[in-house]
Amino acid sequence: MSRPLGVAVIGYSFMGKAHSNAWRNVGAFFPQTPPVRQQVLVGRDAEAVRAAADRYGWQDSATDWRAAIARDDVDIVDVCTPGDSHAEIALAALAAGKHVLVEKPLANSVPEAEQLVAAAASAAERGVRSAVGFNYRRVPALALARGLVAEGRIGRVRQVRASYLQDWLADPAAPMSWRLRRESAGSGVLGDLGSHVVDLVQHLLDDPVVAASGRLRTFVPTRTGPAGPEPVTVDDAAWATLETRGGRIASVEVSRVATGRKNGLTLELYGDAGALTFELERLNELHLHDGLGGPSSGFRRIVVTEPEHPSLHAWWPPGHVLGWDHTFTIQAAELLEAVAAGTDPRPSFADGLGVQRVLDAIERSAHEDGRTQTIHE
Amino acid sequence: MSRPLGVAVIGYSFMGKAHSNAWRNVGAFFPQTPPVRQQVLVGRDAEAVRAAADRYGWQDSATDWRAAIARDDVDIVDVCTPGDSHAEIALAALAAGKHVLVEKPLANSVPEAEQLVAAAASAAERGVRSAVGFNYRRVPALALARGLVAEGRIGRVRQVRASYLQDWLADPAAPMSWRLRRESAGSGVLGDLGSHVVDLVQHLLDDPVVAASGRLRTFVPTRTGPAGPEPVTVDDAAWATLETRGGRIASVEVSRVATGRKNGLTLELYGDAGALTFELERLNELHLHDGLGGPSSGFRRIVVTEPEHPSLHAWWPPGHVLGWDHTFTIQAAELLEAVAAGTDPRPSFADGLGVQRVLDAIERSAHEDGRTQTIHE
Amino acid sequence: MSRPLGVAVIGYSFMGKAHSNAWRNVGAFFPQTPPVRQQVLVGRDAEAVRAAADRYGWQDSATDWRAAIARDDVDIVDVCTPGDSHAEIALAALAAGKHVLVEKPLANSVPEAEQLVAAAASAAERGVRSAVGFNYRRVPALALARGLVAEGRIGRVRQVRASYLQDWLADPAAPMSWRLRRESAGSGVLGDLGSHVVDLVQHLLDDPVVAASGRLRTFVPTRTGPAGPEPVTVDDAAWATLETRGGRIASVEVSRVATGRKNGLTLELYGDAGALTFELERLNELHLHDGLGGPSSGFRRIVVTEPEHPSLHAWWPPGHVLGWDHTFTIQAAELLEAVAAGTDPRPSFADGLGVQRVLDAIERSAHEDGRTQTIHE
Amino acid sequence: MSRPLGVAVIGYSFMGKAHSNAWRNVGAFFPQTPPVRQQVLVGRDAEAVRAAADRYGWQDSATDWRAAIARDDVDIVDVCTPGDSHAEIALAALAAGKHVLVEKPLANSVPEAEQLVAAAASAAERGVRSAVGFNYRRVPALALARGLVAEGRIGRVRQVRASYLQDWLADPAAPMSWRLRRESAGSGVLGDLGSHVVDLVQHLLDDPVVAASGRLRTFVPTRTGPAGPEPVTVDDAAWATLETRGGRIASVEVSRVATGRKNGLTLELYGDAGALTFELERLNELHLHDGLGGPSSGFRRIVVTEPEHPSLHAWWPPGHVLGWDHTFTIQAAELLEAVAAGTDPRPSFADGLGVQRVLDAIERSAHEDGRTQTIHE
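Above: the input entities. Below: the structure tokens describing the complete assembly.
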């Protein structure tokens, strides 16, 4: 056999563009993955989605996602819509026997996420694969970090300090939008950026969060919308401390009003024998302190572009750095490898649900004066 | 008039050495301050304190702090002993009509601190001055930061992210000591490093903390003392979120087990028009984002060594950096200036008490599952 | 009209892969450029080039570059072979009326480069375009830097400090290769990395180099080849000071034995009103000192990902960083724009010749004890 | 026996202040050195020098340096005057049997320096010690660097890249001064900052420079003095490449017009097994790449404040950073140790002469179009 795997991407704005880029390029860098064909790009505006499909290398465009899913030449459905439609589309795709990739967050609520996990489990029995798009797991420096933690290079991790800071809402004059209304967005920065951080904490430590204490804040409570001033009903900053099953503590701070931070995801992991630090705006670097060198030890700036580093064999010679979008290409490759191997890819829908439960606990804690909430699996 | 002001320092180990250095050098750099004379260094071991006094430039040494305080030629008493004797010595010195500088933390408990504040207030009516030694207020970069905040260069501050991380207890084999027993030390890293951070938050924002939520952790619960394994009864890491009267939020993380961090005090202040960041291991630098430059804006690395920068006129030409110990010299100068001017120096005992109350609220919160505690003045 | 422009790339290893990536993606990010079609990838090994063509998205592969050039459906010939075949292929392509992009360096010698310039001038009269692939001009941070210099933001530039340091030959056990033989490689690190640096100096300042003094060194004079030890006949490090027509001085240091540097191109420009610094391993950042902020001025870290920054509108939101390979995509876009507009793209063959002449002067100086050599146009 | 060693400092401005600070503090940090007594500070303005002597802790002040040298209670003469009087004062002091410390540069010309070396050699036979004040050898990070090089931690060093950049003359409106006239200053930035760099290159490598090629430039050829516009007769920027006896190459760039650089001394050493980098504005840090960690190697940021690091036992706990002035205190301690031990301190006058000869060769080369000049010992 060997028809290429047909892909449909639902959504064609920011995430649709990033995912299209991944599907267009994955074969060039990961030739061992099964070949893919960019079958159809789906969106609501027929003309706009057709233009996008042309630009991004798609065979076809469409406005009806149900029809797209139903196509025989589509094997993989990649959901890049806003969170409130993730569940509906992904459930339909799984039911149609298509492998599914869902952009993060998996869903807007825990019940929805639970429903997706159940559907994914059932689909898996039929060989249908599903994954959620926490692309930062694919940053080579973070993949390297996870490996170093797993092999004990920094000893047993005790505490993690994490932040994800942006500033696009710092200006009080920034306008109202659907992202700032609870009914459409589900939550604010906690769900948007906090979900990445929580996933990374659990992923890097390989240890689930079991309790959380949190605080939310809306610094700009009213913004001007099309119809005048309107209340902002989601958080624009959030703080939490998380405790894992293994007894580690992670502190988390996320914000959309941190002036000067554009895409400021930072991580610090402190173990009993070393430490790791990372910042997304310098995503090709990892800083490792593992005590080597005795009194002349210190944090080592690793430029993560060596052929031995995760995924780097696929790209360029040492020192030729990758960008943000390459993480999606790696993500596509790992999904394709799982499909080819008949294994379940990660992060799974269950991973996505795990993140959702932690976010939910943080919100509950914030509404109870910070009291720590337990997370039930 | 014009006898130099006589100084007594009580304590001759780490802090005694740092304060001696300040008194020995203050006149060389701040010639406009009243002249001082290093009269007497006080410690419990007669031979050791005599040797220290010789090294550090003191006229005399002594073992009886009461007698030292009583000397006619002593005008300023500088208390560098462990925290559990601060109150007794400072109260005696104030009662004897001597100006008093107390190393931080002001005292080991809120009631002690309250007693000291009352005594200081009464002494102030008689022209007797008192101050607590939060020397990091004197880091020129932080003095500059406070000025920039006050003049609105980063707009109204919304959130602060602060940490103070060290690693001298990271190794589980590090031995038991008095600092790790609650009865002698009062608290762990929260009191030791957290007090600095809380003071800086309140000082930089000029806005008191009114509520706190916290978490404490002892990662290494047993350590080996002279008589074998012994329980560690204080925290070796602590986390808090603080809310100020003005509605700002500050997150705080302090640790003695953060492998690779030696003296890692970091501060990030985010305002609605800019941001400031600082790290103590590079104490001559301040990073400022104030939007200047339009699309080419960004964090500006200010080397805080220009003559216009706080206290810098006293030292060297631009680019000739200061060290950690210079902050004590500046602290001494500011105390002397207040004495000369007949004004009350800052940070005052009341400032020290304010810090103590915040630390106390964090501890209470930690014992109530993270529930936010209100701070009553 | 509107057949897409057909492209042929000659060469399919490192540079062929990077250029293929650019042609595959240029339309997705720069939709206003004329559409292109990846017609044919050319290489000497039929099987290998066919596999590469499949991976990289080419319609066809071929082993005969002359036949590829002659194809009616090929409009652009992109030469990614080693330097010793640049001239022959490019001349043939121009003669065939095809637009030509030649990887840097333009040629292995000044006479060859001169021949190419003449052919390009003659072709330009017939509307045939040519360009040389100094892709680092397309790093957005460097494009921004050039604009800032041009608009006087750092005043008149006086001195430039530049380096390009790698370490793949640091180990004396690294084997002999064609790159280390003068007859095949033309020169060593001077031609390879020095050409980038010299081009950037002239480009950023918009001021040609008119005199040069230099020094060359082969630190490892013998390496082991297939037939045993063999003399290394090119330089593995080089130094130069360059003087421009406008009287600026640039210092240049390039090396393949700078242990720890992977792709370490650094630039510092000092003007009478400010300065700029850049390093390629952090290619999304530019550091600008323009005196803004008065006594609180300093180097500003600009994250060059704002929509106002050069080429950034084509990519992602602020803070979502680009990688090394994106520079080739931008290069392809700018070539296509010139073709569409009927203008001559830059860097031109004349620019490439200019670089060659400077490199030649450095070599001559090195052979005359460092004596400064004048560059004649 | 045991009268403290009496010190006279000649000169009381910038360097006099820094050296006074060292003598005042050396005993507090280096108690094993022989005790010193700050006998007399010497300057031409009686009133000003008296005030300075009071501030800086001197017993006495004086205007006649000959008389000061002759005092029986003076054992060490520390020459902090401008370079044109170094020779005269130092020769007189040695003749009087006093140990001598001379600020760098040793002298304004090679012949003067040779005379001083001869006098020092003769004095040494009588147990009289002499040293030149290249204080940057005492930066703990650089002392550590030298040790690491000596023990082979970066293998055999091949190339060094060094710069010392300041900007106090960047503004063309900066006024004329004696430092910009050849007759008074001897040379420009080459002698002032270049001497530090050349000394460090030779010191860190323990390998003398034997050949040099150079270039000088005066970017602002006319400045306004008290009597109107006047020609600047010294260099304000200089470049050189140096070759050592052992075949290493060092590139040097020094400038007083490098806008944004305040005290920007940077060093990069590349060996065949590793590399070291340093910058003076962060003088507590050394970056070491020694290959530890295999594929996860990289430059390690060593915070040079551990008790095992050079001179650090004398100061504070780990992470408590030193400043620029501490280097002079360490310099004083090392001189005192040599005096006590009856050994010849380093850097010696011969070291100072060695630097002078290299600077002279650079100047000669600059006047011969960059032709390499050999340095004869």
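Note for the figure: Chain A has two domains: 5-135, 137-346+353-367.
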